[in-house]
Specification:
Helicase, Ruva Protein, domain 3; binds adenosine-5'-diphosphate; binds zinc ion; 12% strand; 22 helices; 611 residues; Rossmann fold
Length: 611
């Protein structure tokens, strides 16, 4: 097991090491120190010294005799000798007037023993312990003092006002409506208390990344004019068991003190994962979650602390979090539709200087599937491009170019591509465009380019639907597949070869054909059967097969057949229109980028006989 995950084990190891060191010190070092102070001597030496009158003190024990002898300089040296049966010894010692009986020879100062035996080793251990933990703490991310258990070092982000309102959030009308009630509650909680209504303690904002969940939470706080506490779920997960729980306690006590207020927990799935009771589960995370549940139950909803949390993995959350009295409201925050995208673009465009006659609708149509954050980025890129080209306001071309920058990366102006390869790329792209244009159910071609991009794309064909599409029909899916295979088909037809340039097309075609078979029920061999389930739909949507291995083999076969048919269709379309293919490819080679209109103009006019 990872040491980070099991701090208890670590403690045990350190404590055992310290105890071992302590025992070693006491059993080996201490006696050696004592030995150094007392020299061994034989009995005759003792008797000689007694007779010579050099002996100072004598201490007679059961088995040994300890004595001190003054040397020439007057310093005392302690000796020890075995005790021999010697009845005369006492009287002999007595004769020597100077001998002191039974004095403590070994300098047996209890204080010194205590210091040497316990205090110094313990101090030593503490120093070593601290050094070890400091270095571990640093490795684990600056955990200053490892000994401060149960005390949170949470830097809780409090901002009196977020400065955001619902006007800053474009689209997302359903989410705003659901949150408006919470705003009203924070404005005058008494109204609700009078009737005896309990408002939701928490609401869960669910949706893909970058759709404005954080922004919505900030807007709620801004609209209600209350403080906004924000913390990310991952900040609760600490090295030591109990630290996360302490942070949760801290957060809630701070929030209760500042009520009414909003507490926003981002990425709540990091702590709110289902507790599955596995052996060796993550204690820290579970404790943190338990603490969160307890706190949510414990605080008085009427005081006006509202907890908003965001996640893009709702399916992995613990059901206990979702029960009434906790996050009982679930507010979907989906990717914006056409109108939503246009609205987001407009909201962000307010901050920049625009030329006249900007067509935001065109940009919104070209960005199907983009999130709010990506759209905000497009506007910013456009502004940057305007500055770069020395203009004082953003125009349509800036916006169009920045759409491509966000989709495919920057242009690689100095990429050196041989003429031969350029030709292949041009035919490939025109292959896509031509197959698309010659089919009934495909979106119109918007733009074709063979300028390489930093994403690695050597060229691409952009198709933009007239309106927003919510459904995908079987005919559309099949045309899409044919279009995807169009690039490779052109390479085969014209150059009698195939290149790696089609790898992305192949990936997309496979994905689509697979979905048709396993999820959309669009194949001839399977009926309406879900052969695959999508596990996290907001994050790429990994699918897992739910069928027997035989069926899986059949699926592969079916997918292959569908793609094969599409490929054959694309080849047929291109060979029927080979003159247009040549003409358009040469035009593209010449211009590098052509618009949908230019493309359609050439496609529509009478064929010029090839030279
Ligand atoms: P999430 O929390 O859902 O991952 P954020 O709220 O952090 O996304 O959004 C990131 C940024 O994207 C915001 O700061 C904002 O600039 C922009 N954004 C996203 N959605 C919207 C929207 N609906 N309206 C305006 N801006 C948006
Ligand atoms: Zn292609």
């Amino acid at each position: 097991m990872n040491e980070e995950k099991n701090p208890r084990k670590q403690y045990a190891i350190y404590i055992v090491i310290c105890l071992l060191l302590l025992m070693f010190f006491n059993s080996m070092i201490m006696p050696m120190l004592n030995k150094a102070a007392i020299k061994d001597a034989d009995y005759s030496f003792f008797l000689d010294q007694v007779d010579e009158g050099n002996v100072g003190k004598v201490q007679i024990e059961d088995t040994e005799i300890k004595f001190t002898v003054k040397d020439a300089d007057g310093r005392e040296q302690a000796y020890s000798t075995a005790r021999i049966y010697d009845p005369d010894l006492v009287s002999r010692l007595h004769e020597q007037k100077e001998v002191e009986f039974a004095g403590s020879i070994q300098e047996q100062s209890p204080l010194r023993d205590f210091l040497l035996g316990w205090i110094i080793p313990i101090l030593f251990m503490v120093v070593v312990w601290n050094l070890i933990f400091k270095s571990i703490g640093k490795r684990m991310g600056g955990l200053g003092n490892a000994m401060s258990f149960g005390k949170s070092n949470a830097k809780i982000y409090v901002k009196a006002q977020t400065g955001k309102t619902f006007d800053d959030v474009a689209g997302q009308d359903e989410a705003k409506e659901a949150l408006a009630e919470i705003v009203d509650f924070l404005h005058n909680p008494d109204k609700y208390a009078e009737i005896g209504a309990d408002l939701p303690k928490g609401a869960l904002l669910v949706g893909p990344p970058g759709t404005g969940k954080t922004l919505l939470a900030q807007a709620v706080a801004g609209e209600a004019e209350v403080p906004f506490f924000s913390i990310s779920g991952s900040e609760f997960v600490e090295m030591f068991v109990g630290m996360g729980a302490a942070k949760v306690r801290d957060l809630f006590s701070q929030a209760t003190a500042k009520a009414p207020c909003i507490v926003f927990i981002d990425e709540i799935d990091t702590i709110g994962k289902k507790r599955d009771g596995q052996i060796g589960g993550n204690d820290e995370r579970e404790q943190t979650l338990n603490q969160l549940l307890t706190e949510m139950d414990g605080f008085d909803g009427k005081k006006g602390v509202v907890i908003l949390a965001a996640t893009n993995r709702p399916e992995s959350l613990d059901p206990a979090l979702l029960r009434p009295g906790r996050f009982d409201r679930r507010i979907p925050v989906e990717l914006p539709d056409l109108a939503g995208r246009e609205a987001v673009l407009k909201v962000h465009a307010k901050k920049i200087k625009l030329s006249e006659n900007i067509d935001f609708n065109a940009i919104a149509r070209a960005t199907a599937g983009a999130s709010g954050a990506e759209l905000a980025n497009i506007i910013n890129e456009a502004a940057l491009r305007a500055v770069r080209s020395g203009r004082s306001s953003v125009d349509q071309s800036d916006l169009e170019e920045s759409v491509e920058v966000v989709i495919a990366g920057y242009q690689r102006k100095n990429a050196v591509i041989s003429q031969k390869e350029k030709e292949i790329i041009a035919y490939h792209e025109i292959g896509h465009a031509l197959v698309a244009a010659k089919q009934k159910y495909s979106a119109p071609v918007h733009k074709i380019t063979i300028i390489p991009r930093t994403s690695g794309a050597l060229g691409y064909t952009m198709q933009v639907d007239e309106d927003e599409k919510f459904l995908l029909s079987k005919e559309e899916a099949l045309s899409k597949l044919a279009t995807l295979t169009g690039g490779r088909s052109a390479e085969e037809l014209i150059f009698n070869t195939c290149t790696s340039g089609a790898s992305n097309d192949i990936e997309k075609a496979t994905q689509l054909a697979r979905a048709m078979v396993t999820r959309y029920g669009m194949s001839s061999s399977f009926d309406m059967i879900a052969l695959e389930t999508v596990s996290n739909k907001y994050l790429g949507g990994d699918a897992s097969l739910a069928c027997s291995p035989e069926t899986a083999a059949k699926i592969d076969e079916e997918v292959n057949n569908i793609v094969k048919k599409a490929h054959a269709k694309a080849l047929q379309i291109l060979s029927e229109n080979s003159e247009k293919l040549h003409e358009l490819a040469h035009f593209l080679l010449d211009k590098e980028t052509i618009t949908g209109e230019e493309f359609m103009a050439i496609l529509g006019k009478e064929t010029v006989p090839a030279v």
